[in-house]
Amino acid sequence: MTSTKKEAIKKWLSNKENWLIVAVILFALILRLYYFSLTNDQPLWWDEAEYMLKAKNIALGTPETGWAQALRPILFPVIAAPFFFLGLGEIPLRFLFVILSVIGIVFTYLTGTILFNKRTGVVAAFIMSIFYIDIFYTTRLLVDIPQIFFVNMALFLFVKHAFAGGSKKLIWAILPIIAIGTQMRFTVALFAIILFLF
Fold first, then answer.
1. Does pLDDT of 1 surpass 70?
2. How far apart are the first and last CA of the chain?
3. Which of 65, 76, 109, 113 is the least crowded, having the fewest Cβ atoms under 10 Å away?
4. Does the global pTM surpass 0.70?
């Protein structure tokens, strides 16, 4: 690590508000890991089972009877399939949702910081860290947490460009993020309409 990077890290850590966001992120991670430990082997709901059914079909060639192709985007089963092919099962997928949820909170902080200030970003991140719906869906193998992740990432890039003088390349990065997110959950495409109207 260069001395310039060390100085930048020291300067960043000297700001008490930066310590606050580190504390919020750690709190969010610990809270989600606690619920992960309680629910990582829970039975699947119907919707969860449908995604896992298709994932096993892709990975192992099992029948896909019950898969509603017209209603369900395909990306989540495609991502889940290697976990079943390697014999890892659902638990690593559940842990992946914990990570996506925490990263979504980081994007909330960054967006709030750009639009308002660091304190607002920390408060917004803290509210997201304890928001019961986010915690609830972090423990379910559904597409809600990935949807929040992709929308938050696209929103951050847009805000960075529009309000913080970020590169125009950020706008082009939004398009594949929304396209990938839409293949995870169709309603991510609504965010593209909102951006267009803006």
1. no
2. 42
3. 65
4. yes
